Amino acid sequence: MRAILSGLALILTATSFGTAAAAAPVHAIAMHGEPALPADFKNFPYVNPDVKKGGKISYGVVGSFDSLNPFILKSMRTTARGMWDPEYGNLVYESLMQRSRDEAFTMYGLLAETVEWDDDRTFIQFNLNPKARWADGQPVTAEDVIFSFELLRDKGRVPFSNRMAKVAKLEKVGERSVRFTFTEDADRELPLLLGLSPVLPKHAIDLATFDQTTLKPPLGSGPYRVAEVKPGERIVYKRNPDYWAKDLPSKVGQDNYDEISVEYFLQENSLFEAFKKGEIDIYPEGSATKWARGYDFPAVRSGEVVKETFTPKTPSGMLGIVFNTRRPMFDNLKLRQGLALVFDFEWVNKNLFDSAYTRTQSYWQNSALSFLGASADDRELGLIGDARDRINPAILDGTYRLPVTDASGRDRNVLRVAVSLMREAGYQIKDGKMVDPQGKPLAFEIMSQNAGQEKIALAYQRFLAPLGIQASVRTVDDSQYQQRSQSFDYDVIIKSFPSTLSPGIEQAGRWTSQARDRQGSDNFAGVADKDVDRMVNNILQARTSEDFTAAVRAHDRLLVNNSYLVPLYHLDAQWVARRKHIGRPDTMPLYGYQLPTWWDQNAQ
Question: How far apart (Å, rounded) are the C-alpha atoms in residues 128 and 149?
Fold first, then answer.
């Protein structure tokens, strides 16, 4: 009955844009509003469509790898880079659609040539491109798409394993089309997420062993094939000269190297030394101190290495010292609020980072989605509901800011407020130690992953000590860090929460009750709050840009108010050093520089 009524509604209102899009296949879909590029677009605006393919590039990463399967839990963070990669590109596997990095959340045809959906998004139909081929020459079929979603549902890791949860029916329609019909509780982002999901070859996958790690080169439909594997050390990709989509508008000007290698290093210092020697071609820099002082070496002085600063138009995201609220002590809001105030950002910025950073106050700072400077209007207050009674009024009216210290590391005015909050939480300083009502000292461990995190943790340890709080710092190797972070085996951890202009289902993985006890999820703080759950749902169900903005701002206010972490800092720019023979487009998209659009000048 629901399908019949939806179909009747489409017929009756066929003159509207939304239903016209449902009545005929469209070339692109957007989360909110309309796609920016017309159906006859030639290429994305941030690529060089005339670039000649050829040459090679060498990327470098810290860590190791023991698998070429990026879709299973066992190799969630130990898969070789490049297989399915947001930074280097999806070199081997592809999705049904390709995301434009110059729009908030808009996707254009890739494996799917066109798309059909209704205005209520009760279904989506992907019509495959008849030219789509696997690297062995076989066509990509509707059966492959169905096989992929069912396989990842049964044996994949999150988020791939979750995407069928709200699909009522998955069926082949016609010769090359697949339709997903959704359940009543499906959100409006789901159709787009399905378009971003990987498609795998049914004829080349062993169901019995799929959920096991493997170093066997896989078959994909992407622009590259795996050419060489040295486990934990190096992986090399060679461009497929017969790549089916090389002339597709959504792929023009990308995948420009004949060879891509990814080199692995045990330490960041080793990686940087390799870059200085010319063994690595690109080095994204995250350290303000090193960017200011560490690039006085011969290749920079000669011009062989080029330093560049990019300014994306995206939200700040949030880097923070995260409290694991699964630990009883951190289930106390007043304690978390007090502990957050103890961190002296001004001291850290001045003494460790040459004052290069900006304090992060919001998860969507530098964008219209942030609560900063925006008082909650009636629309937003309606979404917040009774939760407004437990939100700091300054956060509600947008005037809230973290206190600015005197940069001494012991600002008495700020510490006085912090101690007062801890006293409200039931703690007091006794015999030089901060203790709970039972007299147990307040002590916890901060787990760090590398020297940069350790530096921050040690500074925090220093700030906490005068209050009688015992914070130990433990830096662990990559494998232990991944194991402990996936199983939530830590007191405090340092984590980054990137933000986009189109937040959606990733917020459920980070902050909702459903993800709290799911190993491998990104709910590092252990959040289980009905109001946060409700706000994430509001984001996912928003139909208009106004409702969407209100929902994100309300979510931002709740997260900041609940002090799940100590907000740290961000850069308003991206720093990248590259060998001069690596070229790039003149135009930078909304989301910042895009490595898959760069090229080797030696091939031009």
Answer: 15
